[in-house]
Design goal:
Shape: globular
Helix content: 40-55%
Number of helices: 6
Structural class: mainly alpha
Low-confidence stretches: 161-166
Radius of gyration: 20 Å
Length: about 170
């Protein structure tokens, strides 16, 4: 296989060539980041009249976008790690309660792989026993949208208000 990467960067040494290749391989993740920011968080539809209102909102959406991608990447690269590496106990317990309302909550947190699959299901990803691919950013951002997060507040194990009270 032969690659031709047009660049204006210097490529005289092996280190310089390696740097250009590394930049190029990062490009896909940067594109996914901005797609998540634009399509998932819908930042282009924000219509603030003042920059002082836009910047804090954009800052929150950048964090949300980063977290969505982190959940997807870690769920794939560290599938056997405990989900509490990135999910609060209230988050994974609420997710279990939503998906499996008749089952008892597990005593131990699920793995990142299992949690990513559960989050994916909440976002519309169809889990099948023989399915090997993992949920992507789109189903993850749908599952972690503000509407969903407000709904999760009512099923948290330590919530003051339960779903039956609403």
């Amino acid at each position: 296989m032969e690659w031709i990467l047009p660049t204006t960067l210097p490529i005289q040494t092996q280190d310089e060539i390696s740097s250009v290749i590394e930049y190029y391989t990062s490009r896909r993740m940067i594109e996914i980041f901005f797609k998540t920011l634009k399509s998932g968080c819908k930042v282009e539809s924000l219509q603030f009249e003042e920059m002082s209102r836009l910047l804090p909102c954009l800052g929150i959406y950048l964090i949300v976008t980063w977290r969505v991608l982190m959940v997807c990447r870690l769920g794939r690269s560290m599938p056997n790690a405990k989900c509490e590496l990135i999910f609060d106990p209230a988050e994974w317990k609420a997710t279990c309660r939503i998906l499996y309302p008749k089952k008892k909550l597990p005593k131990k947190p699920p793995t990142l792989n299992a949690m990513l699959r559960m989050v994916g299901e909440l976002g519309g990803w169809i889990a099948k026993s023989n399915r090997e691919d993992m949920p992507g950013p789109q189903t993850t951002w749908i599952a972690t949208s503000p509407r969903f997060c407000v709904g999760m507040e009512y099923v948290r194990p330590d919530a003051q208000i339960q779903a039956k009270d609403v």
